[in-house]
Write a structure and sequence with these properties.
The structure is a single chain. Strand 21 (284-292) and strand 22 (295-303) form a beta hairpin. The N and C termini lie far apart (50 Å). The protein is globular and about 70 Å long. The protein is mostly beta strands. Helix content is 0%, strand content 44%. The strands form six sheets. Strands 3-4-5-6 form a four-stranded antiparallel beta sheet, with no helix packed on it. It has a four-stranded antiparallel beta sheet with strand order 7-8-9-10, with no helix packed on it.
Amino acid sequence: MESFTHGAAMSTVDSGDNSTTQSLVPVQVDTSGVLSGKTITAIAAGYVHTVALDSDGKLYAWGDNYHGKLGVGDSSTINSNVPVEVDASGVLSGKTITAIAAVAGSSHTLALDSDGKVYGWGDNHYGQLGDGSSGYLNFSYVPVTVVTSGVLSGKTITAIAAGGDHTLALDSDMKVYAWGNDSQGQLGNGFDSDSEVPVEVRGLQSVGDLILPISDVPTEFALEANYPNPFNPTTSINYQLLTDSKVELSVFDMNGKKITTLVNEAKSTGYYSVTWDASNVSSGIDFYRLQAGDFIDTKKMVYMK
């Protein structure tokens, strides 16, 4: 069992150590129950509750259960000072969860499965669960599926994030979607109306790169193989920077003629992804080259119309 601890600034029920006593030092989460023999691979902290993901793609939660944010299936558990298993008899049946999200101040929890589908449970006052409903005293004690009949139709979600009363998702084409509370324009779609279903964040079409949500820092400079490859007409190129660097990422044809420059600016240490749209060039073999300080690497890609 991979053990983990919970730190200070907690409520009296969300430490998961089978007590209701606050602690100013880390305490180990109880592993004698549902976590026995489990290996935890990810954790997320919400508003006085915690959620954990194990290596089998199963979910556990503990702490306050107001609005059903533990996802245990009913309202009988007001709170739990030890981990309980999130209900997997409904929409999560047979699913393998790969990512979770919750945030301080939030009363809803999110999960992403291996098929790129998103689920939510807990408070749904502003439609932050994305299931097409909202309203005062609207919440779910079990996971529900985020609507995929609109802008998410045919999309594969690769990352999720929870705001106070809204939700964000990133798809495999590097497009961003949001749903829930929009009182401060946090959905980014040009309006200020809440949405019970995902809407596309506007104005990001020209954004060439995004820092990916990876928590660690790079240990080396690297240029990765583009994906997909072969491609038509777009492909993503990932690279990582060990230190802050002046970066140039360019595409060349077979004759060494520069087709386009995708990045030409100073970048901070981190992981980046750039999407290239080759709609306006001829199909064939091209090369992309990354220069970051003294680091230079070139790779081949194939554009097939």
